[in-house]
Design brief:
186 residues, alpha/beta, Dihydrofolate Reductase, subunit A, eight-stranded mixed sheet, globular
Length: 186
């Protein structure tokens, strides 16, 4: 059975993007990117909202990203090596391989996907993650806390949600980022 992981970059005050929609403050350095490469290598399927999919699709559609360094090439290969379920009412066609468009979030479908998977699954994007967290299908939250306070923006975790969590791992990075892994207590 696969573990469903919500992994997200967040400011110290809990936002994934600032009030202008920018997340340029969360660009990972090489050490942090290598950490994400390891995470991606263990992912069998990604559940993505439309915006997150459109942001991440460049790892397959824009070869110049992977050509910048060996670390970025490794990430691109790992990202492409997983199935993608894109939740969108507006997208009609996928621009990447191994991608299926799904019109609506269905918790039972996600549970069945987890049950039938020998690899971990990743949910990306705070809006889709909110649906999955409310439905009780997320097993772990992995937060990359960037050393910045931005004051306002899009919350990493829905503000109307109560979750009891158990800290199961943490790591400090030279750039000041801290990664925290929490298991959702049922």
């Amino acid at each position: 059975m696969g573990t469903l992981i919500y992994a997200i970059n967040t400011s110290l005050d809990g936002f994934t993007e600032d009030s202008a929609g920018s997340f340029d403050w969360s660009v990972p350095d090489e050490e942090v990117h290598e950490f994400y490469n390891e995470l991606m290598r263990g992912i069998g399927a990604q559940l993505l909202g439309r915006r997150m999919y459109e942001t991440m699709a460049v790892w397959e559609t824009e070869p110049s990203f992977a050509e910048e360094s060996a670390v970025l090439a490794d990430f691109a290969a790992a990202w492409q090596d997983s199935d993608k379920l894109v939740y969108s009412r507006t997208l009609t066609d996928a621009v990447t391989k191994r991608t299926r468009i799904v019109r609506a979030f269905d918790a039972d479908e996600v549970r069945a996907l987890k049950d039938g998977s020998s690899a971990d699954l990743l949910v990306g994007g705070p809006e889709l993650a909110a649906h999955a967290l409310r439905a009780g299908v997320v097993d772990e939250l992995r937060l990359m806390l960037s050393p910045v306070v931005i004051g306002a923006g899009k919350p990493a975790v829905a503000t109307d949600l109560r979750l009891d969590l158990e800290l199961i791992g943490e790591r400090r990075f030279a750039n000041g980022a801290v990664h925290a892994t929490y298991r959702v207590r049922r």
